[in-house]
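Model it.
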Amino acid sequence: LMFGCAAVARERHRRGSALLATAAGLKMYPAAVGLLLAAAKPRQVLPTFLLGIGLFAILPFLTQRSEYVLE
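Modeled.
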């Protein structure tokens, strides 16, 4: 979470938003920080952040049967 915020502050938007998406994929509360940074810099942070969140959302379906995941 701190590395993601520091990367965005240093204008490394893709790395920062990817780190924030990883943190949000593991725990839910870092998503609030990622969305706040996405609101501050929507063009730079939002696309990569949403892509990362989408990848974490689809990951269980790629590793297990979909019927089991949906239960």
